[in-house]
Design brief:
Elements: H1 2-6, H2 20-34, E1 40-42, E2 45-46, H3 48-61, H4 63-67, E3 71-76, E4 80-85, E5 95-100, E6 120-121, E7 124-126, H5 134-149, E8 158-163, H6 174-183, E9 191-199, E10 210-217, E11 219-228, E12 232-233, H7 242-255, H8 267-274, H9 282-287, H10 289-300, H11 304-310, E13 313-321, E14 327-328, E15 331-340, H12 346-357, E16 363-370, H13 383-395, E17 402-407, E18 423-431, H14 433-438, E19 445-447, H15 448-464
Parallel strand pairs: 5-8, 5-9, 9-18, 10-17
Antiparallel strand pairs: 1-2, 3-4, 4-8, 6-7, 7-19, 9-10, 11-15, 11-16, 12-14, 13-15
The structure holds the ligand CCCCCCCC/C=C\CCCCCCCC(=O)N[C@@H](CC(C)C)C(=O)O and zinc ion (2 copies).
Length: 478
Amino acid sequence: KGLKGQGHQRAPQIPSQFSPGERFAMKEALKGAIRIPTVSFSPEDINATALAEFGEYIRTVFPTVFKTSFIRHEVIGDYSHLLTVRGSDPGLQPYMLMAHSDVVPASDGGWEVPPFSGLERDGFIHGRGTLDNKNSLMAILQALELLLNRNYIPRRSFFIALGHDEEVSGQNGAQKISALLQARGTKLAFIVDEGNFILDGFIPHLKKPFAMIAVSEKGSINLRLQVNMTPGHSSAPPKETSIGVLAAAISRLEQTPMPNMFGSGPLKMTLQELAHEFPFPANIILSNLWLFGPLVSRLMERNYITNALVRTTTALTMFNAGVKVNVIPPVAQAIINIRIHPAQTVQEVLDLVKNIVTDNRIQFHVLTAFDPLPVSPSDHQALGYQLLRQTIQSIFPEVSTVVPGICIGNTDSRHYTNLTTSIYRFNPLYLHPQSFRSIHGINEKISVPAYETQVKFIFEFIQNADADQEPAPHQHEL
Ligand SMILES: CCCCCCCC/C=C\CCCCCCCC(=O)N[C@@H](CC(C)C)C(=O)O
Ligand SMILES: [Zn+2]
Ligand SMILES: [Zn+2]
């Protein structure tokens, strides 16, 4: 299928085999990256010291990358990095690999191993960022370092964009890199960023893992709800307070799910391509969604992860009110984090929210909002998708199914829609429900073999992108 079936791709020239010394160095390099606490709390509250240290660190552990004459390194927005790897064939359109260096905060308690220790225990490297997303950042640079040490000269140019504020919007990292490349007239064949994984154990009755490449991601709204009431003495409380009014409103939101949008968006395509992996009768059911759609849609909403695929979700994430134990509070505020299904828009969802709340004492303030991302191609001509598929088949031969899907979280790649229509969000790693919960949660960890495999994947991917796959249409300026 795809490029593989067209018969003009070449196997990677340099085998993805690493010496014991290289394997030791690559895991130590990741541990060192985890030890630098590059935590972002908000766009205004990032750890600038740690981010600067991280910039020095990657220069130290990947010396060849930073001294190679055909690689240009630029620091953007103070702490993000853009590497331009100039390939030998300017006729091939460049692509971009992405990752980010910042991480979400880690709670003090609950971790088996301190979150910024980077300790290895039982074959796993532990810590914040081991799955999201220092693994990708380090693996990209590591794979390039190893290729350069083997004197590899890429044919196709590519960019490596390493954001430093993905967890808090990407406005100073990815957004600025994107603007810079746009100003330079760059167009990209495709982008690969973090996002989906090889999923294992997420669907009952589906015993085999499958790779899901996200071809879109949900939209998002951060919405502040506020109630102002007259303050007063708590010894003679009014019938309603700002806290009570707001609590009732957001409880209505939590209790009223947004409409089930099953049937619209890329999910149908995902399920149809996955159908043959299921035992009877699920395979027949999924192959005939025209008939069984309502049944499948009901089953999907029963589980909180698959529910996120069929509808817009509403999460109550912040609540603030009150100034003193005996004062009726003048203001109550809550923030809800909404993830928009690909078949809906910001405006449609805001209208639905207001209809559910139906209380004109509530003021709404949109903090940030964007629509769902366009769907990238996944057909046989889609170069980025097919290169991912080809590399998955080579590195994970036991994974027989690769399907397009949506990413329920957001990634920095959304800032690059001005440069390409082909954006793929995929981490070459197995993800189980438990490891899914560790992302932004506790006990985030990556096994040493899984990290080595991620490096191998990128090592082969870069070479696969250099194989003869398309006629050279015209020259591309970097
Ligand atoms: C039928 C198949 C079952 C599908 C199961 C789906 C399993 C989910 C797999 C992976 C999802 C992980 C999402 C990782 C990317 C999230 C990155 C992130 O946290 N971004 C922030 C960005 C924000 C602008 C600050 C976010 O909150 O989304
Ligand atoms: Zn991330
Ligand atoms: Zn994250």
